[in-house]
Amino acid sequence: MTQELILETRGLTKEFRGFTAVDDVNLQVREGHIHALIGPNGAGKTTVFNLLTKFLPPTRGEILYRGKPITGMKANEIARLGLVRSFQISAVFAHMTALENVRVALQRRLGTSFHFWKSERTLDHLNDRAMELLDEVGLREYADVLTVEMPYGRKRALEVATTLALEPTMMLLDEPTQGMGAEDVDRIVELIRRVARGRTVLMVEHNLSVVSRLCDRITVLARGAVLAEGDYASVSADPRVREAYMGSEAVEEGASA
Amino acid sequence: MATTQTLTPAMERQRNARLRRGMLYLVLIAVGLAAPFVAYPVFLMKVLCFALFACAFNLLLGYAGLLSFGHAAFLATGGYVTGFLLSSYPGLTPELGILVGTLAAVVVGTLFGALAIRRQGIYFAMVTLALAQLVYFVFVQSPFTGGEDGLHGVPRGALFGLISLRSNLAMYYFVFAVFLIGFAIIQRTVHSPYGQVLKAIRENEPRAVSLGYNVDAYKLLAFVISAGLAGLAGSTKTVVFQLASLTDAHWHMSGEVILMTLLGGVGTLFGPLVGAGLVVSLQHQLAQSPLGNWVSVILGLIFVLCVLSFRSGIVGEIAKSVRKNFK
């Protein structure tokens, strides 16, 4: 394939007091792909994720975004580059309405976010755009509902809408289907497929059936290092991956789903 | 910009809330204007100064989620600077003295904030406490504060050089105006684009970061506004009582403002006003009664009761029951 690399890590390493959580990871994410990061518990997926989104500083190694190093940047700065992350536990602003949740993401571009002397009514013209985004994830009727009162699956959808408000070039999703019932999982899978058009997605995911349905490319981590990389068929056929997952049913189950 | 907009229920609700708030302000202003004919103006001025102090504190705790244990430092900075200027330069008008005192509190607040904001929770509280103790020490030692004696006989002067503030009634209306300005600044801050981001940060800080907000800068601004308004309260208080003393700089004062805010209702607009009114009244009443020596004990008991049984404070509890019964 000739697609360009959008995100790349070189020798990415994270040590916590002598324990190496992430060991010399070289990850390459191509533009336009839905790329999954999978691996058994404790493989270092979330740590890699936090390193990429600058929520943790790496011990060694480099992170490049479109060929430019972003290793030294702060978490809020990379969001401004268009790299926006989600969280494992749904990250919403609980005591704000769904509309306000999205609007707070939209308002950053106005450049008035430090203006404490202006009325919040100056934000009202963002409401239409916020509604469009809510519509896109099927939450129009929740616009005026306080987020704390929304069901879990809807909160995750709201999170996606909030992320889309930033018009990200790349979305980093941390276990988007975690803790969900089957119905919600299907809805989120569809949603991710839809919003991934024209974007790059890197996701950490436990649910292999989700991965098999969505992802163009998969990186398997085990004990902090890259074990295998490729499309779903080749990765799931890899005996080392099967061994890492112990008992290998998980992989087969996912393939047949 | 879209000028014709469909009014969503939320917008309608917001508009109703704004109307209700507007009504409340009108009532507040009416009560404030009439109050000195019912109650003793000096007592009312004390309540208003502490209410402004508590409102400033509430902006930080209730809307930014930051518990400062050093707010006395800003109250005292405002008080001492204004007291010193008005005593030393008889030509200076009180409003200028108050303005400079407030700016001094803003400067100290910026320094405190820049140092403390990087820490969270209890560490943030400890850093602010430590810095406030440092300021206390400076005030004890500096010649311009009068040390243990404090500054006495600060002249009230004449507002804009025109209106004498010697009469308590004139002074009262000036203090009331200052309070309203401070209150309006807080109102606007809470209901501004900035207020929205502040709320988001309080609700979920990592998420606010991931949306591209530099949260430390937003917190710092909240801290500085809060410190400035606390300074404004201190400056005004000095003019009213013609006195600046170490009591205002002591950590007791930092604790008292926490008590007022929690008692009235943290994160509510009128809570700090109610809390300050209650605490000042109690102190005032108890000081004249045989229980005079027990003020701290009684306040302590009320505090315990408040934390145990009505955690959202008086105004918070009322708001809750109103919401429950009128939904």
From TrEMBL, chain A:
Keywords: ATP-binding, Nucleotide-binding, Transport
Any one GO MF annotation of this record: ATP binding
UniProt domain ABC transporter: residue ranges: 7-248
Alphabetized InterPro entries for the sequence: AAA+_ATPase, ABC_AA/LPS_Transport, ABC_transporter-like_ATP-bd, BCA_ABC_TP_C, P-loop_NTPase
Domain of life: Bacteria
Pfam families: ABC_tran, BCA_ABC_TP_C
GO CC, one annotated term: plasma membrane
Protein name per its UniProtKB record: ABC transporter ATP-binding protein
Organism: Halomonas heilongjiangensis
UniProtKB/TrEMBL annotation, chain B:
Main location: membrane
Protein name: Branched-chain amino acid ABC transporter permease
Membrane topology qualifier: Multi-pass membrane protein
Coiled coil feature spans: none
Keywords attached to this entry: Cell membrane, Membrane, Transmembrane, Transmembrane helix
InterPro entries: ABC_transp_permease, LivM-like
Membrane-traversing stretches: 23-43, 50-76, 96-115, 122-139, 169-186, 257-282, 294-314
